[in-house]
DNA sequence: CTTGACCCTGTAGTCGACTACAGGGTCTAG
DNA sequence: CTAGACCCTGTAGTCGACTACAGGGTCAAG
């Protein structure tokens, strides 16, 4: 388990080499050192950091937000309150998106319900009618 | 209410001139004719079509899907079934996104609940702990 | 000592829905 | 007749998260 080259790390983390270099550009990861030829060399612990990134992504955090979380995570003096605040902002954001989607779903379901489907032409389609602004 | 130039139409529809030209590139709208100087001239009824586009967007349809809806809408021989199918596919899509967001929200809420906030440092933050893969 | 797998940098493309010019031509009010 | 508001085409930039080269250099196996 000595330093990993970027290709080995990519395989371990199930990410592409390009993605790793992209994360480096964003400041999310960095190689521990470079070889004489300029090759990136990573310590094996970086795999954990990449898992952190993936988990946070799955929870809806952007890479920019993940950079903040990683910075807080690396600072033992930082307050957990900041992490909590980021988390609660993300929850609020997600809840807003859910509400928007639910409004759409209800509107669409209401329209689909009254559409006779294959028994009618588009002329009598209430969905198109609504989009055209018929009634209200 | 004679032919509208693109600037007048933009004002009526509360869209930018650039957006209108963009919609034209996508095939969503077209000027009825061109003036001698090459100016786009729209019949006033185009405003309805733009409202259709905006309503469909608010319901979650992409501009590509809206192009399909408009094509169906303009073809009186087309079946309302196709419109209904597009609508139901969109409902399914939205429901999937809601489910994904709800899973995120619940995971985040569960983490936030156990975070002591400002009373602890990031070392003891269960949110960062979870992202780092502690437990499970 | 060569072949092929790896690595480097830097740039550009993808998706969707715009937005912003640059470098022209046209139209209208005073 | 001219200033300024309008219009044209064509190209490029924005956001986020990648993805895909091109044109090099490096390394290990046979």
Short description:
Chains A, B: Keywords: Coiled coil, DNA-binding, Transcription, Transcription regulation. The structure is a homodimer of 136-residue chains. With 136 residues, chain A is mainly alpha-helical.
Explain this structure.
The structure is a homodimer of 136-residue chains. Chain A contains 6 helices and 2 strands, in the order ααββαααα. Chain A has helices spanning 6-13, 17-25, 46-58, 63-73, 80-113, 126-131, and strands at 33-34, 40-41. With 136 residues, chain A is mainly α. Helix content of chain A is 60%, strand content 3%. The mean pLDDT of chain A is 93. A two-stranded antiparallel sheet of chain A has the order 1-2. In chain A, a hairpin with a 5-residue loop joins β1 and β2 (40-41). The first copy, chain A, has 2 domains: 1-59, Multidrug-efflux Transporter Regulator, Chain: A, Domain 2 (Orthogonal Bundle), CATH 1.10.1660; 79-136. Chain A is elongated, with a radius of gyration of 24 Å. Chains A and B meet through α3, α4, α5 and α6 of A and α3, α4, α5 and α6 of B. Chains A, B: One of its GO terms (molecular function) is DNA-binding transcription factor activity. Chains A, B: Keywords: Coiled coil, DNA-binding, Transcription, Transcription regulation. Chains A, B: It holds the Pfam family MerR. Chains A, B: This is Transcriptional regulator, MerR family. Chains A, B: Residues 84-111 form a coiled coil.
């Amino acid at each position: 388990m000595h330093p990993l080259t970027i290709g080995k790390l990519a395989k371990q983390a199930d990410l592409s080499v390009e993605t790793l270099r992209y994360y480096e550009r964003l400041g999310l990861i960095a190689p521990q050192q470079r070889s004489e030829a300029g090759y990136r060399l990573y310590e094996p612990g970086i795999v954990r950091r990449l898992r952190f990134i993936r988990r946070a992504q799955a929870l809806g955090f952007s890479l920019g937000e993940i950079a903040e979380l990683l910075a807080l995570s690396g600072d033992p003096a930082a307050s957990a309150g900041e992490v909590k605040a980021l988390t609660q902002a993300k929850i609020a954001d997600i809840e807003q998106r859910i509400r928007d989607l639910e409004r759409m779903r209800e509107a669409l379901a209401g329209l689909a319900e009254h559409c006779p489907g294959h028994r009618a032409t588009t002329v009598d389609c209430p969905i198109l009618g609504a989009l055209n602004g018929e009634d209200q």
